[in-house]
């Protein structure tokens, strides 16, 4: 491991990301409304390219990251990257609502509240605008769900590439030169999680601000999430040797992250906010349990393959 390169990369990445997130977060809160939401969305998209720029400054080996798409022998990884986040999200929903069935609903009321807030409208006005366009709330939910499993991950992949070049293209391979694979997952995931801390504290990104254990429990749970998903990203990159695969996985993860909005009761927002640290979003402490279980199984398989590779047996 090139210690100087790694330290430079981490320092620049976290320093620049934390400054930019603080500016974007505070500015979006001050302006508010649709404009504030737009500033936050654009600002966070820009922040996602900080790891790529930091890797460039640290003189990472960009040529060796696998820019040429590799389909031969990797088709299964395309489907894994595209659909496994959705599968894990659904499993998380099942586990969470087994514990909290009282906030489950298929009426789309919570999704309508979120859409109304983003558009700066009252729920009735937003629903009227939706119906005026010829869509029902249920149809909007179906269309959104289809988008999540078709083209949205590929669109998100472009922005996600900004992070993946830094994390999986540079940081994880460098860490593996010095640390075991497990320690690489732990260290890399912790850094990936810390990358998001400012907007979590300022804007309530991922968990809001009113959950049990706020504001610090969310930081811990999100680090656990990033360690878990970082393992999947590292494995798929190691298997394919192509940076586009973890970028697609990252894009799919972001696309499916809001699936939970379709199955919540909008009349119970206070209770939802209180327990959001537990789920039903895929990064909740309860809803991530199926993902962690599958991650552990995959880790055992990968580590066994590593041992066989070293012994040649």
Mean pLDDT: 93
Shape estimate: globular
Structure class: mainly alpha
CA-atom Rg in angstroms: 20 Å
Q: Stretches where pLDDT falls below 50 for ≥5 residues?
A: none
How many discrete structural domains?
1
Order of helices and strands: HHHHHHHHHHHHHH
What gap, in angstroms, lies between the N and C termini?
28 Å
What percentage of amino acids are in beta strands? under 5%
Major sheet description: none
Count of DSSP-assigned helices: 14
Number of strands: 0
Ordered list of secondary-structure elements with their pairings:
Layout: H1 3-31, H2 33-47, H3 50-57, H4 75-99, H5 109-119, H6 123-132, H7 137-149, H8 152-176, H9 181-194, H10 197-203, H11 216-240, H12 244-256, H13 269-274, H14 289-311
Helix pairs in contact: 1-2, 1-3, 1-10, 3-8, 4-12, 5-6, 8-9, 8-12, 9-11, 11-12, 11-14
Structural features, described:
By secondary structure, the chain is mainly alpha-helical. The chain has one domain. 72% of the residues lie in helices and 0% in strands. It is built from 14 helices and no strands. Helix 1 runs parallel beside helix 10, helix 3 runs parallel beside helix 8 and helix 5 crosses helix 6. The longest helix is centred in the first third of the chain and has 29 residues. It is globular and about 65 Å long. The model has no long low-confidence stretch (mean pLDDT 93).
């Amino acid at each position: 491991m090139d210690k100087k390169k790694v330290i430079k990369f981490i320092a620049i990445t976290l320093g620049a990301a934390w400054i930019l997130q603080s500016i974007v977060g505070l500015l979006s809160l001050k302006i508010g409304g649709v404009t504030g939401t737009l500033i936050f969305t654009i600002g966070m998209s820009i922040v996602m390219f900080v790891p790529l720029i930091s890797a460039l400054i640290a003189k990472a080996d960009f040529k060796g990251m696998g820019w040429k798409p590799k389909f031969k022998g990797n088709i299964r990884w395309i489907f894994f990257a595209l659909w496994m986040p959705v599968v894990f999200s659904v499993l998380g929903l099942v586990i969470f609502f087994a514990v909290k069935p009282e906030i489950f609903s298929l009426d789309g009321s919570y999704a309508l509240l979120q859409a109304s807030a983003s558009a700066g409208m009252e729920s009735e006005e937003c629903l009227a605008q939706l119906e005026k366009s010829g869509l029902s709330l249920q149809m909007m939910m179906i269309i959104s769900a289809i988008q999540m499993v078709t083209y949205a991950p590929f669109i998100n992949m472009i922005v996600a590439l900004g992070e993946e070049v830094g994390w999986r293209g540079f940081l994880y391979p460098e860490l593996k030169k010095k640390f075991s694979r497990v320690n690489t997952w732990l260290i890399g995931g912790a850094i990936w999680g810390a990358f998001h801390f400012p907007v979590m504290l300022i804007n309530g990104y991922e968990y809001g601000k009113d959950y049990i254990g706020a504001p610090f429990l969310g930081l811990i749970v999100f680090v656990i999430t990033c360690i878990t998903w970082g393992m999947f990203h590292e494995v798929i990159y190691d298997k394919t040797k192509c940076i586009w695969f973890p970028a697609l996985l990252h894009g799919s993860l972001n696309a499916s992250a809001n699936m939970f909005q379709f199955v919540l009761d909008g009349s119970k927002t206070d209770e939802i906010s209180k327990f959001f640290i537990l789920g039903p979003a895929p990064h909740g402490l309860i809803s991530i349990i199926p993902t962690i279980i599958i991650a552990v199984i995959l880790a055992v398989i990968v580590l066994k393959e590593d041992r066989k590779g070293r012994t040649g047996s």
